[in-house]
Amino acid sequence: MDAIKSTIAENMGGIAHKLADAKDQFDINKDVPDQTGKVALITGGSEGIGFATAYTLLKSNISRVFIVSVSEDVIDKAVEEVKTNLGAEYSSKITWLQCDMSDIVAVAGVAKQVREQTDRLDILCLNAARGIMTYQLTDSGIDRHMAINHIANVTLTSHLLPLLKQTSGGGPVRIQIQASNTHQISPKDTKFASLDELNTDLGPQVQYGRSKLAALLYARYLDAHLHKEHPNILINATHPGFVETKMSVDDIHEPYPKAGYAMSTAMKPFKKDIWMGCVSTVYAATATTKSGEYICPPAIAEPGSELAQDAQLGEQLMKLTRDIVREKFASESVEKGCPLKDY
C-alpha cells in the first residue's frame, strides 16, 4: 500500500503529494530556505517546470537567476509574469542568456558569459530537455536527445566547475539534473559503447528514456567524483512526475499526431501543474543535505532502475561523452585549451 501511495505521489497531480510519508514532504510555499545572497542558473527556465523553479527561487529572495533558453518571446512572457505578480525588483534579478542547447559550442559560450558576470554560483538546475519526440541528429551528427539531455549538461557543468568549486568554499552548492522515471524503459543492453549506438533510432519514448538514464548516471558519476573531492557540492537527479507542460501538451503530437491526445488531453485531469512539477527540483536545488540521490516528488529518494545503479555504466557513459567531444569539437574546444575536466 505504501508503494502505491508513493507511486501516486510521485507521478500524479491534485492531492497526490499529500499521500507521501511525512518525512518525504516538501512544500514550495513554506519549506524553501531563504536564498538571500545566492545565485542560480536554470536551463529551460523560461517556461514549464524551469519557470516554476525560477519563480519559486525569486520568491525566496534569491539575488540573481540566470535563465538559459531559446525563445525571446517566451522569456519576455516569463519576466512579465514575475514583474506583474512579484514586482519589478524581482524581475530585475533575471538575466536571460539565449542558447540552443543542442549547440554544444554555444553552451560552452554561455558558461563563459556566466563566469564573466558573477563571482559565485550556488545553484545549477539542468532542466532543459528534448521530450518524447522523433529521432533526429544535430548539425554535429549526434542524436538530439542525447546532445540536449546529456552532453549539453556535461559541457555546461564542466565549464562552470571553477565557479561552483569557488562558491562551495562558503557553503553548500547544489546541482540538480532533471531525469525521469522514463529511464526505466531504456534497453537492457544499453552499453554507451559508441556514437553509433547513441545514433541508433530506438523510437521516441525509448530514445527519451535512454537520455534520462544518462542524466541519472551523470548525477551519480558527479557524486562519486566531484562530491568526493568537494563535499559541499551536492549533486542529485530528480523526477518531476507527470506534468502539464509544452512537452506533454504540444510536443507529444510530433511523434504521435493522433495517439498523443491520450497524453495531452485524456490524461490532463491526472497531471501535475508546473508548481507541483517543480517541487522535487526546488527541493534538490535548495533544501537537501544529501548527494547522489534520485529524488521523486515531493522529496522521495528512489533507487532507480538496475541500469541507473550501475556505476561502471556511468563511467563508460562519461568516457564516451569525452570521446564524442574530442571527435566532434576538437578544433573548437580541445585544441583551444579546453581541459575536458568533468569533476
TrEMBL record:
Q: Which Gene3D superfamilies match?
A: NAD(P)-binding Rossmann-like Domain (3.40.50.720)
Question: Could you tell me the superkingdom of the organism this chain comes from?
Answer: Eukaryota
InterPro entries on file: NAD(P)-bd_dom_sf, SDR_fam
Which Pfam families does this UniProt record tie to the protein? Answer: adh_short
The record's keywords, sorted A to Z, are:
NADP, Oxidoreductase
Q: Per the database entry, which stretches of residues form a coiled coil?
A: none
In alphabetical order, the GO MF annotations are: oxidoreductase activity
Identify the SUPFAM superfamilies for this entry: NAD(P)-binding Rossmann-fold domains
Family, similarity comment: Belongs to the short-chain dehydrogenases/reductases (SDR) family.
User: Sorted alphabetically, which PANTHER family does this protein's record hold?
Assistant: OXIDOREDUCTASE BLI-4, MITOCHONDRIAL-RELATED, RETINOL DEHYDROGENASE
Protein's name according to its UniProt entry: Retinol dehydrogenase 12
Q: Which organism is it from?
A: Exophiala spinifera
